[in-house]
Amino acid sequence: MKELNSKQLFVGSLWMLALIGIVMRYSILGSIVDMKHGNAGSYLLGEEFVNVLIAFAGFWFFSRLSAKTLSTWGRPLILITLVVLGVVISGFSLVHTNGIAGRWIRLPVIGSIQPAELAKVALVIFMADFLTRHRAELKNWKRGFLPAVCVLSLMFLLIVKQPDFGTSVLLFAAGMWMMVVAGMKLKHFAVVLLAVVPSAVYIVLESPYRLKRILAFLNPGSDLKGGNYQQHQAKLAIAHGGESFPFGQGLMNGLGRHGYVPEASTDFIAAIYVEEFGFIGLAFMLLLYGVMIKQIMVFSITDKSHFNRCLLTGIGGILGLQIMINLFVITGLMPNKGMPLPLISSGGTSLLATACLLGLAWRVMKECPDEEVTEELEVALVTGQKNWNGL
To answer: For a tag on the chain, would you pick the N or C end, based on fewer CB atoms within 10 A?
Structure first.
C-alpha cells in the first residue's frame, strides 16, 4: 500500500477532527435544545450549521492567497485589529457588548463576533511579515526587537482589559515563539520574561475572580460548588467514561451533556468526548492533533520562503498551545480558563479563526513539492539538531 505523504496526513487529520467536532457539537447542542428550548431551540442547530459553512469559506479563502498578498496585509490587518480591540473595551455606543466579560461585539446582520479570536489570524500574518522584512535587524534592540514587542504588548493589554487573560497570554506567547525561532537574542528574551512574569502575577492578584481560580486550583478538593465546580464536573464526566474502559459510554450516552458539565459544547467539550468515547477516543483525538501540528512544523522547516516558515511557526504555536491549555484545564492540571478546543468546540468566531489559520497552513503546504519534505528534516525537527535561527 502506498505510504501517505505529509500533505495527505495533514488534510486527513484536519477533516477527521472537523468531523469529530461536528458530531459532538450537534449531539450536545441537540441535548441542550431538548432541555432548555424545545422545538424553538432548533435555531441553535441552524446557527451551528451556518458557522460550519462560514468556517469552510474562511479556510478556502485563505488557502488561495499568495504570500505576496498576505505580506501586504500584515500592517493594515494588525492596525484594524488593534482598533477593534480598543472599541470592544471602550464602550463605544454604536457597538453593543454581549455578556459580562465584554469580549464580544454585536454587528448588524453578522451578529456577535469575538475580535480576540480573529486577532490570532492578524497576529501571525503581521509577525511573519515583520520578521521577514526585519530579518537582518531582529537582533537589534531598537529596529528589530522593540517594535515587535511593543505590538505584542499592546495587543496583550487590550485583550486583558476585556478581560480575557488566557487569550492574551496565548497570543503573546505565540508572538514570542515566532521571534525566538526567527533568531531573537536570548538576552532580549530574558528581558521580556523579567518584565512579563511580575506583570502577569500582578494581573492575577488584582483580579478577585482570577485569584479565586488560582486558589481553587491549589485546593482541588475545596469549593466544589464554586471555584472548582466546572473542573470537578469535567473530571466526573471523564471518570464516568472510564467505567466502560477503554471505549467509554458511547455516543450520546454521556451524562455530562445533560447540563451536568458547564460549557459542555464549548470549553469543556473534550470532557464529554472522553466520557462517550473513552481512552480509545482520547488517544485517537490526540493522535490526530499530533499529526496535524507535526506536519505544520515539518513544513515550517522545509519551505524555502522565510515568510512561509515564520507563518507556519506561528500557526503551529497558537494551535498547539491552545490544545494543550484546553486539555490541561479539563483534567485539572491548570487553573480554570475558558479556551476552545480547535475544530471541536462550538463558537462561530473561534471556529472561523481556526479554519483561517489552517487555510493559511494548507496554502503553504500545497505549494511545497513533496520531495522537499525529506526524512532528514523530519528527524531534525524531532531531535532539534537543525539550527532554527537560520530561518
So the answer is: N
**In whole angstroms, how far apart are CA 62 and each of 51, 277, 281?**
17, 33, 31
Give 99's pLDDT tier (boundaries 50, 70, 90): very low
Helix orientation angle between 348-367 and 269-302, rounded to the nearest 10 degrees: 30
Class of residue 10 by CB neighbours under 10 A (exposed 0-12, middle 13-18, buried 19+): buried
Q: Which cell goes with 88?
A: 470592544
Question: How many Å separate Cα 330 from the centre of its chain?
Answer: 15
Tens digits of residue pLDDT in 193-249: 888 888 888 888 888 888 888 888 888 877 778 778 888 889 999 998 888 888 888
Q: How far is CA 277 from CA 13, 25, 255, 281, 342, in A?
A: 18, 14, 13, 5, 18
List b or e across 259-288, with b for residues whose CB sees 16 or more CB atoms inside 10 angstroms: ebbebbbbbbbbbbbbbbbbbebbeebeeb
Alpha carbons 371 and 314: distance in angstroms, whole number:
24
Strand partners, 96: 106
- The mean of the pLDDT values for the chain is 83
Residue 154: pLDDT over 90: yes
In this predicted structure, the answer to whether residue 89 has a pLDDT above a threshold of 50 is: yes
Provide the pLDDT for residue 163.
Answer: 81
Q: Residue 66: which H helix or E strand, with range?
A: none
Indicate whether 36 pLDDT > 60: no
Phi-psi region of 203 (alpha: psi -120 to 50; beta: other; left: phi over 0): alpha
Pairing verdict, β 105-107 and 96-97: antiparallel
Which of 220, 170, 237 lies closest to 200, judged by CA?
170
d(CA 247, CA 1): 29
What is the residue-wise DSSP string for 166-192? HHHHHHHHHHHHHHHHHT--HHHHHHH
Rounded-to-integer distance, Cα 339 and Cα 320, Å: 12
Nearest-CA neighbor of 149 among 201, 115, 101, 199? 199
257 grid coordinates: 451533556
Does the N-terminal peptide bond of residue 335 adopt cis geometry, omega within 30 degrees of 0?
A: no
Which SS3 state, helix, strand or coil, does residue 106 take? strand
Residue 342 has pLDDT above 90, yes or no: yes
